[in-house]
Amino acid sequence: MISPDSLEQEALQTAKNSAKLSASIPPKFTEKKYIVTLIFVTSLFMCWGIALTMGDVLNKHFQNVLGLSISQSGLVQFSIFGAYALMAVPAGWFIKKMGYKNGVLLGLTLYALGAFLFVPAANAASFPIFRIALFVLACGMATLETVAHPFTAALGDQRTSDQRINFAQSFNAIGAVVGPTMGSYFLLNAGHEAGDELLSVKTLYLYIGAVIALIAIAFAMVKVPPLTDPHDGNGDADGNDVITAPKKLFQQKHFVWAVVAQFFNVAAQAGTWAFFINYGHKVMHFSDKKAGYFMSLFMVMMLAGRFVGTALMRFIAPNKLLAAFALGNILMCILVAQGWGWTSFIALLMINFFFSIMYPTIFSLGIKDLGPQTQQASSFIVMGMFGGAVFPLIMGRLADTNIATAYYLPIVCYVVIFFFGYKLYKLR
């Protein structure tokens, strides 16, 4: 006869063995029920990748057509990333109240509206109106970024959230390749006659606005399955929080440093991208069109870096890889600043390879274990992208004098990112 104590011990041992077995099974990338949703959310990363890099082509285009200096054209990036600073927190509040799906629809609507505003801007040949259109479009981008990262993180186990976000960001890199390719073909292909070139701007953005509107309509018809955000523990990812984080958000040091790191990360990105075509034109003596096509290769390097980085994260801790890539970019910036022809230009291309994993990795490290504060934290990390509004204006001042020397400035940014990956990311 088996005693009750023996049965209890056997049940306890069975539970322990089951827990060990579950822990030993590698977590899935996602689940079958989330695949359709993940496809749509991943497409959003590509959408804002196109718009972001199109801004860098517009930077050079407006220099040619509207007679702007290099530093004045930095206001293109100020309009785009300034929208991130102003829209990220309201977008986070909206998502908290209305859920992920409605957040996506809001972002796509603003994106399409901004694209359509390029029509009156082109008709008036007005840089201020173009900046308003860019600001509205970028409000949509900021909303999409605020929702897409935690949305992607919620589509599976938290242990694979780094992999999912980096995978989705790989499609952002595809969009970043498409953006300058389209821009170079439509905007840098002709002469510098303002009437013709602004007509091409109007036509291009009409098509972009129409495509984004169709995506919004299609996503409105998708049924998103109930989500349990892995960052929320037992919370509902659409806003029905059940648990409370033990600390206030700004007492979470790893989150605070993630915001700081993202500020400098996007500052370096915006400056490097904004003046890439100028570097090709002035240092390498390329035509604007040829430099624009090289920018597509520049973005291919980021795409390659994201796929390589995602694979390496299976063997190397994300923070260590982030620190190593930051060191790589410090070296690349030093080489670029020398203006040594092809040696420096190849180093410039490599900057985007090492930059590739920085944004998504900083983001995912910053929102780790924040419970119901995850959505709010996401909006602040997106707001940290304001660095992209400030840095091109400063870098443009140097670039007016010497475009190569201006590339010393991003080194400061990569030093901050290195320290975040090396030590400051840690949960406390």
Provide a descriptive summary of the structure in words.
The protein has 18 helices and no strands. It has helices at 4-24, 35-66, 70-73, 75-98, 100-116, 118-124, 127-154, 161-186, 194-220, 253-274, 276-282, 288-312, 318-337, 342-355, 358-366, 374-383, 387-401, 410-424. Helix 2 packs antiparallel against helix 7, helix 6 (118-124) runs antiparallel to helix 7 (127-154) and helix 7 (127-154) runs antiparallel to helix 16 (374-383). The longest helix has 32 residues, at 35-66. It is globular, with a radius of gyration of 23 Å. Keywords: Cell membrane, Membrane, Transmembrane, Transmembrane helix.
How would you summarize this macromolecular structure in one to three sentences?
It holds the Pfam family MFS_1. By secondary structure, the chain is mainly alpha-helical.
Features of the shown structure:
single chain, 428 residues, mainly alpha, Growth Hormone, Chain: A
Topology:
Blueprint: H1 4-24, H2 35-66, H3 70-73, H4 75-98, H5 100-116, H6 118-124, H7 127-154, H8 161-186, H9 194-220, H10 253-274, H11 276-282, H12 288-312, H13 318-337, H14 342-355, H15 358-366, H16 374-383, H17 387-401, H18 410-424
Helix pairs in contact: 2-4, 2-7, 2-8, 2-9, 4-5, 4-7, 4-16, 4-17, 5-7, 5-9, 6-7, 6-9, 7-8, 7-16, 8-12, 8-15, 10-15, 10-16, 10-17, 10-18, 11-12, 12-14, 13-14, 13-15, 13-18
Domain Major facilitator superfamily (MFS) profile: 35-428
Transmembrane segments: 34-55, 75-95, 102-123, 129-155, 167-188, 204-222, 255-279, 291-309, 321-340, 346-367, 379-399, 405-425
Membrane topology: Multi-pass membrane protein
